[in-house]
Design goal:
Low-confidence stretches: none
Number of domains: 1
Strand content: under 5%
Number of helices: 4
Number of strands: 2
CATH superfamily: Ferredoxin thioredoxin reductase catalytic beta subunit
CATH topology: Ferredoxin Thioredoxin Reductase
Order of helices and strands: HEHHHE
Mean pLDDT: 92
Distance between the termini: 40 Å
């Protein structure tokens, strides 16, 4: 395998580990649960990883990255608006964090 490809894969793996650790630490606080749908979780984790590599931050993949640091700061996962989303809908807009009541649903 060419060195550049290996380096890219290593960077992707390291970024994904960082994202997964962030999500685990956030969930350990106990306020919310991880969405029980593994496809949704995988999609969001992949988007957060992609944004971490591309922009240096784990911007929510469900929100646009504008390039304006002041606006974009509000979209770093977990974003400030996720509390309102979860209170209203039972899940954040991306779908990775849900209420504990939804944890057992499929």
């Amino acid at each position: 395998m060419p060195q550049q490809k290996e380096d890219e894969e290593e960077q992707m793996t390291e970024a994904r580990v960082r994202v997964e650790r962030m999500v685990e630490r956030y969930l350990a606080r106990g306020r919310y649960a991880l969405n029980p749908d593994p496809v949704t979780v995988e999609h969001v984790i992949a988007g957060l990883t992609r944004n971490l590599l591309r922009y240096g931050r784990w911007y929510c993949p469900c929100r646009e990255v504008t390039g304006d640091p002041e606006r974009d700061r509000k979209n770093i996962c977990p974003c400030p608006q996720h509390h309102d989303d979860i209170a209203r809908d039972g899940a954040c807009e991306c779908g990775i964090f849900v209420t504990h009541a939804r944890k057992g649903e499929t």
